[in-house]
Amino acid sequence: MVQLSDKVRELIDGKNFAHIATIMKDGSPQVTTVWIDRDGDTILINTAEGRVKERNLKRDPRIAISITKGDNQYSGAWIRGKVVGMTAEGAVEHINKLAKKYTGADKYQGYTPNEKRIVLRIEAQHITERL
Amino acid sequence: MVQLSDKVRELIDGKNFAHIATIMKDGSPQVTTVWIDRDGDTILINTAEGRVKERNLKRDPRIAISITKGDNQYSGAWIRGKVVGMTAEGAVEHINKLAKKYTGADKYQGYTPNEKRIVLRIEAQHITERL
Question: What's the ipTM?
Answer without folding.
Answer: 0.95
